[in-house]
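User: These chains co-purify. Model them together.
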Amino acid sequence: MTTSKVVFNNILRFFFLILIQVLILNNIYLGGFINPYFYVYFILLLPYETPGGLLLLLSFLVGAGVDIFTNTLGLNTSACLAMAYARPHIISLISTGPDSLMGDSPSLKNQGLKWFLYYSISLILIHHFVLFYLEAFRFTEFFLTFIRIILSSIFTLVLVLISEYLFYPREK
Amino acid sequence: MRNLLVFLRTHYFILLFLLLEAFSLSLLFNFNEFQNSAVYDISSTFTGAVNRTFRNISEYFSLRNTNQALVEEMAKLHSRLPDAYYKSDAYSFYRKDTVYQLQYRYISAKVISNTTNKRNNFLMISKGSLQGVKNHMGVIIGNRIVGQVVSVSPHFSWILSMLNKDSKISGKFKKNNQLVNVEWPGGNYRYGSVKEVPKHVNIKEGDTIVTSGNSDIFPEGILIGTISSFTVATDENFNYGTILFSTDFNSLGYVEIVVDLMRKEKEELKATFKSE
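Assistant: Joint model of the two components:
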């Protein structure tokens, strides 16, 4: 893929995922304990080559985009920044070397299910941990918040996997 | 100097991360100051426009419920018209009534954004400072509690929902006027908690909790909910109750903002008290 096409795709994904998050996912009620934050898919799919500064900046912006719609400025941005900071470390931790990374950006198709699961589960958990604990910010709700984190992470992961299979199907 | 540059270059990723993270955490914890800035007005106007567009589409799906609520409200109002009263005498007279003086006025507003699934929920409504909405005004629906205004831009306002960890409503038992605090512990949006009910209060299932009117935000007697269960503490001096909210926060279409016409007088009185 050419660079301009990659940039265009990511810009489109940026706005699309924020709108999905604030207009649909934030309004779905699932027992009060499950809040999927599917917009982190944007950070998961940024190209490997994204410079560190740009990675942090884009994560900040996507978090701020969600925050202004829920009147919680600083909440999603903090969580996204933690996730973006961890991303290069996680990638180097679970990959055998730079040669083992196929294609431009992380995907199920290029890297296989195992790699992609490790990658997305760890990053989603980091994001959700920071987000939910900052949101509750009380020790009395420690375990309740923990349950919310686990349930919501599972739901977010399912949404990520579904979109991986829908939009980037494996070639037969 | 050169070493510093080398240091900045090799560690810029973590340094930039720490800088941005510190910035967002300060935004999160100093949110009240930020609410007064011009950036906040602009972002509210933008999100308001997006939310309103989406709401204009989605509100068609709830027209049936909206109609139902309007018809009920209309029936209630009809029953208060002069025509609905039996006139006992042929002539009428005028008397300047100093006992009943108008204290509350209501502004109706459309809810354009609302969540119930977060730990801290806010609503956005389509009326702002141009329509007379001000900070710390109470928000109700019918005779039931919703929340209070926390920030206002020219055309929109953010409402701190009852479903928020910062919401602490001063309520009372309708039957004996015992004061209690109502909070939302998170989780199911139908249930809140009543903490620190003194032991001598005879708490029962089905007891109605209404606003106390002590807080200047809500008029007295606005419905909060009914007690659905309670625990009798053995070692402490207080009992705890769970309350079923009267308001269905997940289906709010229109709300009313309470304008207290005597608020200024109350605040002036408080100010004189403090200055002495």
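Chain A has a mean pLDDT of 88.
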